[in-house]
Each structure stands twice: as C-alpha cells, then as structure tokens.
Amino acid sequence: MEQISNTSNVLFVLLGAIMVLAMHAGFAFLEVGTVRKKNQVNALVKILTDFGVSAVAYFFIGYTVAYGVNFFSSAEVLAQKSGYEMVKFFFLLTFAAAIPAIISGGIAERAKFHPQSVATFLLVGFVYPFFEGIAWNDNLGIQPWLEAAFGAKFHDFAGSVVVHAVGGWIALPAVLLLGARRGRYTKDGNVSAHPPSNIPFLALGAWILTVGWFGFNVMSAQTLDKVSGLVALNSLMAMVGGTLAAMVLGKNDPGFIHNGPLAGLVAVCAGSDLMHPIGALATGLIAGVLFVQLFTITQNRWKIDDVLGVWPLHGLCGAWGGIAAGIFGAKALGGIGGISIVSQLIGTAGGIVVAAAGGTIVYGALKSIVGIRLDAEEEFDGADLTIHKITATPDRETHW
Questions:
Q1: Which pTM does this prediction carry?
Q2: How far apart, in whole angstroms, are the C-alpha atoms of residue 60 and residue 127?
Q3: Which of 14, 178, 323, 329 is the most exposed place for a label (fewest CB within 10 A)?
C-alpha cells in the first residue's frame, strides 16, 4: 500500500509539473503576441533559455536555500519513494522559473540578452528561494512567530505572493532601470501606441496559461490525499471574474480580455483552498478591475513602459491575492477559516520588500557593471536581428 501511495503521489505531482511547464509556452506566446514583430523571436528564445538557466540555478543553489535539500547523493538514494522528491523538485522548479518568465514581459523589446540570463541565475538562485523558504518552509522563524502572535501563519497555498507578487515586484525596478522603449513617450507628453503584433498568438498564450493554471493551483496540494475540488472550482470562478471585469472595464479590448482571466487566477492562488466559490468570484472581479485600471495608469499617467503590464498583473494582483485570502478565507464570509488578516498583510508586505529590494540590487548592479539595455540602433532594428540574427517572418523566402 505504501508503494502504491508513493507512485500515485509521484504521478500526481509529475502531471502538475508538466502542466506548469506547459504554462511557460503560454508566457512565451503571450509575449510574442504583444510585442512588435521585430521582437517576436527574442520573446520565444528568452522564455526557453531562462527556464534552462533557472533549472541549473535552482538545482544547485535555490532549492537548498529554500528547503535545505540538495541532490549530492547517489541515484539509488534519490530514487527512494519512487523518486517523489525528484518530481517535487521538478514541480517547484516550474514555479521558480515563472519569475524570469514574468519579468520577461515587462522588459521586452529593449533588454540585453546575456545580462538577463545572469539576472535570472541570481534571482532564481538566491532572491526568490529566500522568500520561498520563509513562506513555505518556515525559514528564519517568521511563520512560527506570526502563528504565535496572530493565531495563524501567512497562508499562500499556490503562490499569489510567493511567485506572482515576487515576480511582479522584481520586474518593477527592472522596468524602471531600463527606461521606456524609444519613441514610446513623446516630448510633448503624448503616448505613442505600440499595438500588439498578433492577437491570435496573445490569445493562445492566455489560453495555455489558463489551462495550465489548474495544475499550478490544484497540484499545489503535492500529495494525492490532499487534493481538493474546491481549489479547482475556486480557480474557475476567479478566472471568470477576472475575464468579465476586464471585458467591461477594458471596453471589449482583446488584450485586456485575455489578461483578465490571468489576473483572477493570480489573485486566487493564495486562498484557493480556503475560499467559498463566491468569494473566489469576488477576488477575480476585483483583480480584473485592478489590472485594467493600474495598467492604464502606469502606461498613460505614470509613463512606466511595462510592456505586458506584469507589475499590475502579477505584482499588484498577486499582493491582492495574499490579502484576499485573509478576507474571503474567513468563516464569516463562507471560507474554511484558520487564517489571520494581519499575518496575510505582513506576509504580503514581506514578499514585496524582498522582491523590490532584490530586483533593485540585481538589475542595478548589472546596469552599472555591464549594462542591461540595447543601444538605440539595436533597439530600432529589433532584438530578433540584433541578438538572434533572424526574424520571425523573413521578408523573402530562400530557394535552395
């Protein structure tokens, strides 16, 4: 029976890991569809290579920082319990690799390639797992302190704060340090429109992410005996809420509509195992409003050129998710309870501080040492030709 339990858990977590791995294709196509045609190849290449860099950084450094576990043992030892610890690492790696995938959308179209790879290694090796270990492994004793002081630990079931808010708040200083794309904002204060290059690709990316998210959330139980259909339904309701809010506020804009479900799903991760489905719907609706409003404000009023809106989508909706878990997870609002709004506020604020500080240090250091931005001519030509020497759609076909 123990062997059956082990193999069942391995298969369960492996399926989750594969679903979240597939989400990285969603990140890629969401960015491909949003950026201009001259930067589409770069979007695809960044997501894949960043995943490779993330795997190495997390395997050798990050997983040890977060959980105190390393893999410097024989394969015979690693294969115990049907290799459950191996697929658990794989699953958590796909979460860690979401950090550079999130950042990629914010810094698109003007970031140097290799400095970003270095940033990925440092962020996934040190910054992300530092907070991951605090939230999910009780590192530094902060979670036990919150439980003793406020009656409950900071609760983040599937990473609204640990993954999404951290990724979004790391991206913000990166975007600010890079500066806006050339020509995006004119000297007279006007905004130059850079419309999405391919709405079908953008939509495909959003759909891949949406489907994969049910692995992201449901499989965060990590063992089959803890799986809950409540998580699945709450994820669905939050997705719907985000979509409808983005449709109404975004005035039928397809970019907003396809990012709306992502906003809802980002926000529901933290409390998806605690909320009533109506609470999850409300969480998604508020997240959809938050994304559309703050994306518009950051782009048009604050002149922050966050290409895919990753700070409002992941940073702000992720932070909202941490707080929403404390609100809608309470028994008074139909939730399961066992949660403290104070702990949620402190934990969410802690994630923001770690992320913003880590992003500022990493990107600030890289900017001063090697530079992080393409020069004017390279940016004009596009990252595809400048970095990869090929475009997504060659002007002429070869005949050999």
A1: 0.96
A2: 14
A3: 14
